[in-house]
Amino acid sequence: MKLLKFSALITIYFSCNFSPETFKEGKLVYETYCSGCHGAQMDGLRDLYPGLKDVLWYDQNRSQIPCWIKKGITTERLRKGKQEMPAHTELSNIQICNVLNYLNSNTWNLKVPFTIEEINLAIKECTNQK
Amino acid sequence: MYLTFQNSNFTEMKTFYFYFFLLFALQSCKEKSLPILGNYTIENNDTIFSKIPDFQLLTQDSLEFNAQMLDGKIHLAAFFFTSCPTICPKVMRNMMRIEDKFSEQKDILYLCYSLDFKKDSIPRLKEYSNKLGIENANFLFLQGKQKEDIRSLMNAYMSIAVDDPDSPGGINHSGWILLVDKKRHLRSYCLGTDEKETDRLIKDIQILLDEVVKI
Fold first, then answer.
1. What predicted TM-score, i.e. pTM, was given to this entire model?
2. Pick the residue with more confidence: B7 or B197?
3. Residues in chain A whose beta carbon is closer than 8 A to a beta carbon of chain B?
């Protein structure tokens, strides 16, 4: 019985520890391209760079996010007078999908994960807009 | 006979260990101090260390700031520009962390030299400082009247900047945070993008603050 309890604890410990590993591609993209401004803990930097923890806001603007990452955010479209965001044209749609799912798993916990089809569509519409 | 021999050996070891640890204890009492970094020349048997040269710049409040204002105060320096997307936010974060740690100290200056002469106007620097919520009057963002005003200082700070259209933001530059003493000598530095390195610099700042000024 004791052994059973112990092994159950071990299993829980390891399964919790390993789950973020599933998003390691997205984590790598986040650390390379995003964490400089938005912070390792996704809390931004005072009024200069926004944090990424506002679940409601990100859920409402879900279809816009891939576009912002790819094309950047210019002064006219800024939220609350923040610093403008540079474009990340070097990121592929798959990388954008990975980083969004990493953020989702880490912070937002939206019920529907991001799919590559969704990202492709968003990027396509955003290209048509300009 | 055998027993006495063993006994004496034991006491000998004990004394040895005693002095050994005493040596260690004394060693730790020795005052820690930071070296003076950079080139030096020898004139009339005196070693002349390089120091931060004279300059005249403007702060984010459009006030004159010159090198004489550094005398008698220790300062931390970093080079940045407001639209820099890669290393500057990290450096700025660590710079603010240091400021937070020594917020009680009125004799430390925090200087952020702007490398972007074209974009970083005084109002833009002011806006940047407002958005960062800087309240310490000793936390300054500096711009020159000419591009060379700041670029010419970099050598003394052991830093470089190169205009490079291919690098993010258009300027490739070093990300050091540098510690300079009351006589404008460079004493320590760290990689401003690294949190652990900055923690080490914070210790160095404390050593410098504790240093008794030798005449």
1. 0.79
2. B197
3. 36-37, 39, 45-49, 81-84, 86
